[in-house]
Design brief:
disordered C terminus, alpha+beta, 729 residues, 39% helix, six-stranded mixed sheet, 21 helices
Length: 729
């Protein structure tokens, strides 16, 4: 079966926050996934307020919500299922106190209240409304009110003497029912509490199906959930997640009617000493495809048939002979389908010495639960509540399990399956085998770095993968590496610049002297018509080329010195747009053959800096953009240059090209000294520009996508106005 990619997001209220409830919730989601044919991902809301916010903003498909939330969201929901308890779709709240310190409404003054949560219906809202209706002001009545988060914690606070009363839900307003609910939370300690006041009824809490879920899925789930209580194919224990016997549509508030089933969910029978049925009962009257409504007085094997009855008769005999009960699981083919059953035998002591002992049998269909047991054991083998993404993979990379954090971090996990980069990296790592002390693999996805911890699974065979977001660590490492590298380059640049400066000065001075002398000699030979005049011309041309090379080397030395320290420069207030126009004029010849120029120059404040240095920055950035565009695509290429003022008042210059763009690994090193992707390029232009802009208190950043072009953005602080209101430049 191919499960659709988009999972159903099922959000639980925070009251289901204990570990056992997480396991139940996960099993319930697996059961829904199997029945619906779509993955159901269960998440726990951190608070009632967060759950309500997720519902209001339409980010959840299905939610287990309080009675108040069900009522509030019912008008815009596709459906609301109310929980059924003790056959009722509504419930009351009971105020309880210590048995040794009984209370009444008249003696509440000055007592301390232990509530569950501000949004808890039975644990706070109902009792507060009830007390208000009785004319009691909550603020004036109680000397202290505290919220404990769960019913158990609130009740324990009363037992420990930290509070005097608490409130708990109850399907009926009577003491024995309340004690049953108290026992669920406190066990035998429930004897220490007694109820002393009951509220009126309110509709029960339940499941909200939002508009985000398709109508067909809602119909299928509603049909399945409303039928769980009577004929849920062994899934009834999972309703313990909601402390419920079943569900009913809020629009038709009554327990769901029984429906005809082709097999019984359970069978109860009392046998005499000869294995004859004294009493036999099944919900539908049909067991293993046989009508058992007239079974009294007949042998059990005759009633059920030899295949089903033989195992039960053997169990009953063994229990009777040993005097203790027994249990057995067995498999049967029922109406062409393999089903698993669990049978328990209990020996009943005869009421008189002459009477024979009888045996009671309880048989349950556990097919669905047996299928989920493997999931339960698996969930118990690692921390279900792990906050980081966690996956289990089969031998071929197929996804067997992913926790909610994995679905949130990697929404395409189900779509890409074995082809997902995380899955491929985990498999490659496991196949290659890691050396002792080797760093774990890191996968980069969507700008984030994920460190994988991969461990093999033996039974069943596969891999368990934990993914940890180490983006912040990687960014810090990159910054530290870059800082160390820049510091080393700065020291090297300063040393090289200093050592090269003097020899370069000698070389340029001697080249200038040689050119002047040869020029004078050329003039003298020319006047005499000497044949060596032509040779002197060739020598002058060679010296001119050498001088150009020396000038270029001088520029590189100056750039190296600039990288090592801020250059001594003349500061003045500068108009950015004229400087940008000047830079454009210097690259216009090359630009003409590569792209069309688009300008959007909006008025911007002056900046403080060196006009010559700013021209150098703009020329370098523009030249880089022009070089990124191919001459063959000149009719389609566009160079967009714009200026504007940022909301913070800074001057922004954007240079956008439609060139080939850059991959992430190139973009990350764009401003590093000596890094270049073009031959015969020193790789200092953008790094020097970055140093100049940074020295002016600004920033230079780049954004690029392969095939889409690059945008270089220069941000400079606006010049501070002089006291006279005019700049000095």
């Amino acid at each position: 079966m191919t499960i659709p990619a988009a999972p159903i997001r099922f959000l639980l209220s925070p009251s289901l926050g204990e570990l056992k409830e997480h396991v139940r919730a996960e099993l319930f989601s697996r059961a829904l996934t199997q029945r619906l044919g779509r993955p159901v991902v269960v998440e726990l809301a951190p608070s009632y307020e967060a759950l309500e916010r997720e519902l209001a903003e339409g980010r959840v498909d299905l939610a287990w919500a309080t009675a108040e939330q069900c009522t509030a969201f019912e008008p815009q929901a596709r459906a609301v299922l109310r929980a059924v308890r003790a056959g009722l779709w509504y419930y009351h709240a009971a105020l309880v106190c210590r048995a040794d310190a009984p209370l009444t409404l008249k003696t509440l003054k000055g007592t301390r209240a232990a509530w569950v949560a501000p949004r808890s219906t039975g644990g706070y809202l109902m009792p507060v409304r009830h007390l208000t209706a009785q004319g009691l002001s909550v603020a004036d009545t109680f000397s202290e009110q505290r919220f404990h988060g769960t019913y158990r914690k609130a009740l324990l606070a009363v037992l420990a003497g930290e509070a005097d009363l608490a409130s708990i839900y109850s399907s009926h307003p009577e003491e024995n029912t309340v004690r049953a609910y108290l026992a669920e939370h406190l066990g035998s300690s429930e004897r220490g509490l007694i109820p002393f006041e009951f509220t009126g009824p309110t509709p029960a809490d339940g499941l909200i199906f939002t508009q985000r879920m398709p109508e067909a899925d809602v119909t299928a789930l509603v049909s399945m959930l409303t039928s769980l209580a009577g004929h849920g194919a062994g899934l009834e224990p999972l309703l313990g997640l909601f402390d419920s016997e079943g569900f009913v549509l809020s629009s038709t508030p009554r327990p769901p009617p029984p429906r005809t089933a082709r097999r019984a969910e359970y069978l109860a029978v009392d046998l005499d000493a000869r294995e004859r049925c004294m009493r036999l009962w099944a919900p539908t009257g049909v067991v293993f495809g046989r009508d058992v409504r007239q079974a009294e007085g007949r042998p059990l094997e005759e009633v059920l048939g030899p295949e089903a009855g033989a195992a039960l008769v053997a169990l009953a005999r063994a229990a009777r002979h040993s005097g203790v009960g027994g249990r057995v699981e067995y498999r049967l083919e029922v109406e062409g389908e393999t089903r698993w059953y669990s049978a328990e035998a209990t020996v009943r002591v005869p009421v008189s010495e002459t009477a024979s002992p009888t045996t009671s049998l309880l048989v349950r269909d556990v097919t669905e639960l047996r299928a989920l047991e493997e999931e339960l054991y698996r969930l118990a083998s690692f921390p279900l509540l792990h906050p980081e993404p966690m996956m289990e993979l089969g031998p071929g990379g197929e996804l067997h399990y992913a926790n909610p954090a994995a679905h949130t971090a990697f929404p395409d996990l189900l779509v890409r399956g074995a082809g997902h980069p995380l899955v491929e990296a985990a498999q490659a790592w496991a196949k290659r085998g890691a050396e002792v002390g080797e760093s774990p693999p890191v996968v980069q996805l969507g700008g984030r770095h994920w460190e994988l911890t991969v461990s093999p699974l033996v039974d069943p065979e596969g891999l368990r993968v934990f993914a940890k977001n180490v983006t912040a660590r990687k960014q810090m490492e990159a910054q530290l590496f870059k800082a160390d590298r820049m510091a080393a380059l700065g020291s090297l640049a300063a040393a090289v610049g200093h050592e090269m400066n003097n020899p370069l000065a000698f070389m340029m001075a001697n080249l200038g002297f040689a050119r002047e002398e040869l020029a004078r000699l050329r003039a003298a030979l020319g006047e005499e018509g000497h044949t060596l005049a032509g040779d002197v011309d060739d020598m002058l041309e060679a010296l001119n080329e050498a001088t150009e090379g020396a000038d270029r080397l001088k520029g590189i030395v100056q750039d190296l010195r600039l990288l090592s320290r801020a250059p001594p420069e003349h500061r003045e207030t500068v108009e950015v747009v004229p400087v940008l126009e000047q830079a454009l004029s210097l690259v216009r010849g090359e630009l003409r053959h590569r792209a069309r120029l688009e300008k959007d120059f909006r008025p911007v404040p002056r900046v403080e800096g060196d006009e010559t240095r700013l021209v150098q920055v703009f020329v370098s950035v523009l030249h880089n953009a022009v070089q990124a565009m191919n001459e063959l695509d000149a009719p389609r290429n566009v160079l967009r240059v714009s200026t504007y003022t940022s909301p913070a008042g800074e001057v922004v210059v954007e240079v956008q090209d439609t060139g080939v763009g850059m991959p992430p690994e190139v973009l990350a090193r764009l401003f590093e000294p000596f890094f270049t992707t073009r031959p015969a390029n020193a790789g200092l232009g953008l790094s020097v520009s970055h140093a100049i802009v940074t020295s002016l208190g600004g920033t230079l950043r780049a954004e690029s996508r392969e095939g889409m072009g690059t945008t270089l953005t220069i941000v400079l602080p606006a010049a501070t106005p002089s006291p006279s209101g005019r700049g000095s430049g």
